[in-house]
Amino acid sequence: MRILALPLIAFAAPALAQAQSAGTPADASADEAEAADTGEIVVTGQRPRGSVRGDITPEQTLTPADVRAYGVNSIAELLTELAPQTGSGRGRGGEAPVVLLEGRRISSLREIRDIPTEAIARVEILPEEVALKYGYPADSRVVNIVLRRRFRAITAEVEGGGPTAGGSAQGGADVNYLRIRRDGRLNVKLGVSGESALTEAERNLAPNPSGLPTSLAGNILGIRPGGEVDPALSALAGQLVTAAPVPSANPTLADFAAGANQPGTTDLAPFRTLRPRTRAVDGNAVYSRTILGDVAATANLGFNLSDSQALVGLPVVDVMLPGASPFSPFDSDVRVLRYDGALGALTRETRARGADAGFSANGEAGKWRWTLTGAYSYSASDTETERRLDLGAYQAGITAGTLNPFAPLPSLALAAPDTARSVSNTADLNGIANGDLFKLPAGDVAATLRVGIGSRDLDSHAQRLAGATASDITRRSANAQVNLDLPIASRRRDVLGALGDLTLNVNGAVEQLSDFGTLTTLGYGANWSPTPRLRLIASRTHEEGAPTPQQLGAPFLLTPNVRTFDYVLGTTVDVTAIEGGNPGLRSDRRDALKLGASYRPVAALDLDLRADYTANTIDGAIASFPAATAAIQAAFPDRFVRGDGGRLVQIDTRPINFARTERSQFRWGFNLSLPVTGTLQRRIRAAREAGEDSRAILREAFGDRAGQRRPRPEGEGPRPERGEGARGGGEGGARRFGGGGGRGGGGGGFGGGGRFQFAMFHTVRLEDRVLIRDGLPELDLLGGDAIGGRGGQPRHQVEVRSGFTKDGLGLRVNADWQSPTRVNGVTAADDLRFGSLFTLNLRAFADLGQVARRTEWLRGARVSLRLDNLLDQRVRVTDGTGETPPGLQPALLDPIGRSVRLELRKIF
């Protein structure tokens, strides 16, 4: 293992140059990691390796020590942790960040998602405007990941856990192989995961007496909903009887009179799941190498298999008993309603399978860089939903007087289940070129050109008792985009230098869709850096967007017994929900504005401040169907079916177009990262300052390994290339990063330094309005209106991410808070208040190779303990009387609550 860069390691080099026996994995002592641990500031005149093109510098840069401090295992997990820093308010909502690899576009995240974090040399987070330089729309932030030049590791992980309230368990295991060399990369990963079902009974939910009274023993009701069962029964009971429990297999009229209007009920909680049972297998393989001399080519293949099973209640026996039946004590025909418990719960089973393939090629032609990417995705899903019994023969026997409906049920069979199948095929091919067109006094005019073609096919078919439905969505597309950056002022070139650096941007795109015609995008903006540490960005985008094939043609599904809160009546009911696509959706038109600022107060301190104002107006916005409020029902009366007494019995939840949505927000925050000197570093430094030999300290820490010699293993990289740094651009300074690598290890080298990190972001929503349809009142989601089942929109949201690592031990503390919301009812008593929510997540981890340095077999091992929602907090909903509606109980909104998870990981 090559040792350099760190003063403490340089002093100890004679003892450590051959610190490991051949064939054992080295600690992650890459030159990049060690240099980063020193916190050394290096003046450099060139851009760091793998930087993005253009004049926009990163808002935040993570060193290897920063990445280690997150205690995560892969790039995918790191992106999840970085969500507060990579979030954007510019898109339609929910957009993932654009991910680049070493300043180049990739075919999909699958190319790099499984790479262990130990292989990362640098991570850069950049604003949305950088996405334009790679042919993407400017609605997502950009994450650029730079890998070590050499790395090799086999990683094995196993984890398990579940909610502390019990009822469910989760687990998974992964095996990952990664080899990085200068000329290529090979990554193969296989993983399995699963989660057991969680039923309502395991959360002690309050029963919800909605719908017709039903029990395992059975009840009698009148033929007319809500009507009298039988005049003779009412006369005997001395009151109008609309329902009564079945008392025995051979009941008399007096037996029924004793239970008049006291129907029996059976709690369905054990037969309904809050979370389904799931199982999944996932595999991925990536191979990258240089071809044709200087073309970096990558190929990716992957697959996924999954299945799930949800419980949706008990089957219902609903039959008519004629008054003339020998088993009937009534003069009138009556209705007998009961559950059949012999068959167990009704289920919905879903089986999904998918395959992905992709490739990317990156090269240069003169001063232009070009990229060619292609991706293909196949997915198939089959769903079976059990909804009813086959009661034909049973009803015929009751009608004929040969079967007693009050006796134990005979063996009944389920009717054919509802089935749905969808098959999706997606293919894309994109070519991107980026280079300089000509020179202006302030610099080169940079251009990005993209052309692409695509294909989307979605075939779906649904079969149910009422008949079959089918949908075939075929979409062919051709698209092009151009982006121009025009430098106006340059501090370095002394062109209008008093302004600092100023660049104007203009971009446009056109897409021709076979099913929606021509859609266009136009954008423009400015990037101004009046001082080296301050950057201001303003941009505007006008964009047209089409619904996805899934929104148009997903298969038709009916889901029974979906617990829903009816805002109109203020009651909780079990309804049948219709799901699927809506072929009548229209394209939307979006107008987005962003004003952003980033500032580094002190050049030598890793503290970054950021503030963004974003405003979005979307005409014809495409959205999932909202909650059953009075305003929504007035706009879409055909989407709701109500039964006797106005009880809600069915909702069509397929997506819709709103007339317009208007949203604006202000988001500000900061990132702080400080180096922490490790104990071993401090001891060696003290020995050096005292003029003492540090080898005794190393022997004490590492035992015999400190004096062993070994051949240099594969994967130990060269010395850092001159001038490479983590930060470049206008500041002209950076932490030093080399091009070295290493075999996977415990992280941090021989006592590599730790890190203290703290990030906080506060989002203030200034406006959130929805116009459902022209001519209707506008809904204010910040002022008491709602379109979702979880209340209005919180005005304030705070996200905190913090961590501390030292000597192989680490602790992450993540906290999130959102302000309360309310939903206005018809009267004050109908108002609903959704309380504020504060969640606290902890993750403690130990790199055992550093904690127990003398124990060889623990090298590269890490154990992590995660506690999510430590305080077991959930949103509490109350009505005007202070009570919680049954359909909005905390455990329904968040079934998991506090959970614990243990993970063991070993790098070989």
UniProtKB/TrEMBL annotation:
| Chain positions covered by the region annotation Disordered | 23-58, 700-748
Q: Where is the composition biased (Gly residues)?
A: 726-748
Q: Which GO terms describe its cellular component?
A: cell outer membrane
**Protein localization:** Cell outer membrane
Name the keywords, alphabetized: Cell outer membrane, Membrane, Signal
Q: State if Cytoplasm is listed as a keyword.
A: no
Signal peptide per UniProt: 1-19
Compositional bias (Basic and acidic residues): 700-725
Q: Which Gene3D superfamilies match?
A: TonB-dependent receptor, beta-barrel domain, TonB-dependent receptor, plug domain
Name-wise, this protein is: Putative membrane protein YgcG
Protein source organism: Sphingomonas yantingensis
